[in-house]
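Hi V.,

You were right to ask for the full record rather than a summary. Here it is.
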Amino acid sequence: MDDWTVITTDGTWSSHWEHSVALTEEGPLVLTAPDCGRAKLAEYGVTAAPDPLG
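Predicted structure:
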């Protein structure tokens, strides 16, 4: 045990987010990031959805 890993009691998948994320048909948006997450997502080859306010 590494004193960090957390598992569910039934063994199913779960996740923990440090941001609020919207998954849209056009791609993800990181709602709590100033640029909607575009810069960091691009580092991973992911294209963010268009800015809904832009």
